[in-house]
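Hey,
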Amino acid sequence: MRSSTLKAGVIAGLFGTTLAAQAQDTPATRIPAVEVVATKVPKAPHDVPASIEVISGQDLRARGASTLRDALALAAGVSIAPGGDAGPASAVPEMWGLREFDAFLLVVDGTPWGGAFNPAISTLSLRDVERVEILRGPAPVAYGATSFVGVIHVVHKDAAEKARYLAFNGASFGSGGLSADFATPFLDKWSSRLSADVDKQGFKDDRTSYTRGHALWRASKTDGDRRTWLTADLNILGQDPASPHPREGAALSTSTPLDANYNPSGAYIDETRIFVSGGFERPVAGEATWSGTASFTHSAQRQFRGFLTDISNTANNATGFKETIDINDFYADTHLVWPVRGNVRWLAGADVLFGGGEGKGATFTYTAPLAATSAPPVNEPSNLNLDSGSDRLFFGAYSSAEWTPASPFTLSAGVRANVTRESHGEGAAVTHSRLSGQVGALWSLWTQDQNHVKAFANFRSTFKPAAFDFSLVENEGVLEPETSTSYEGGVKARGFNGAVDFEASYFDMTMDNIVTAVVVNKLPALANGGTTRFKGVELAADLRLAGSNFVRASYSSHDSRFVDYFYSFDGITNTQLAGNRFEMSARRLWSAGLSHAPDDGLIANASVNYVGDRFMNKRNTAPIPGYSTIDAGIGYRTARAEYRVDGRNLTNRRDVVAESEFGDAQYYRMTAMTVRTGVVIRY
């Protein structure tokens, strides 16, 4: 870590010299942050009694962010592990001390991205983004039974945006891409916009890469105070998966090379995803605003892959599977918002989320050379004799209110009636009915023009049906739903006429029936656990200076532990894990970054991220130390073009970042250092 800190200091010093040379005598750039994920109504984050952060598209472009890890690199209390079981195009976030692929909610332009199943991170596009909203903690009542630790909402630019861009890039390991964003003709009085890109990303890991073709089309019509919109998104993704690194005892195995790939020859994780949606917003009864949206998604997934199951050069030391998964999702939401009357604003609505999916597959064993000197040849199974399916229906009616009894105080509350019905395979349907809700308070301690200090607190009670992962184990029973109660409080401050923002918060969340990954007959499966507790402190501050200069730093201390949790490591004896730290949960996270991004002239950015010590396993017998990564970039802008070079993980750390839920006691490592060059032309 000392070496990484020294390198960070050198980069920061060089960057500081660039800032000094390029600073201009112009006012600081202050972007009016707006969020909608917490309330369904546009509000400033400091006016909501919860931990919310908004990252503008301008900031993302200043840092050359192209992945979720890049985008959230400076977010407080958030750590994004690239890759994972869903393939090298995916990622595994950690929020509030819980690193689970399905513990958070991903929303894109107001619609849950992944529907009733898991977040579809691998098909997420950060092209033409207006902003990214991050809500830490359980999802608000308006988004239902979907998340415990946070919501990530990606908002793309409006269809009426007229700017046109053409971009090219090339990067390490044979990577490169082409993209374009431009207005398109459509019906009279309608505006429309298309973003399209083709991308190939290679990795240092043997036989690991992905190619993606993507198109996002938006159309909208505004007629006075009425608005109508349409959206369509097409993703064609082909991935050559990496292998996680197995653990032996308290450490990673030394018998397997760093970038070894034990997948069978020709392994793939492919997906074609089609998404369409439409919505409207219009006044009713002269005062209220009525909004509605509906979407349909079809995902066709194809997998052929395998994992090392015996760390030795013996026959059949690996297990693989081939599976086809077809998923259809439907989502609809409608709600009414009344204007403020008697210092009260009301919102009421209902939504439905339906997901139906079926997987068909087969398993096989094969022999993989331990030195990974060649790709094991395997004939793909033709008889897909195993099946796994699920039908899930989540319905909710919700209402929330915001009351300002006196100018310094704002009280808010929301309640949701949840009804969920799901069946797996040929099993009987299971129905759960439960209330969830939240209350919050915001107190303005001091206000002067744009400057203020506000204290906030909230309580949230959350219900979430257990995840479903289309495992071929054929355990057709429906797991018990997960539940949580959480408390959060903190301070939000703004100073120097909006140039400085600061937030400090404390959270405490208890979860019951948490779903955990297990291995049954060498195949992945899910099971309910016991009670766990997550608590911590999170701090963040940012500064916007003259000359388009931006500085941000964050620090988090998390304590995630099992409270009452029995786990069978041998399938026979249950072990009580009470008091142990939750696996892969970092005790401390911190980040610091700065960027200089004027409209014309030299641009530069640099950031450092630290992930603290963790345990790789539930028994806490396999500790791993903390690590830090450094990213930096430099370039030049003119009125018509931008030229840049960006480096990721410049210290080339290859530390453990996520645990596999498919391979038993196996872990994905940080991707190797990459350098990307790019040109963006505005025409």
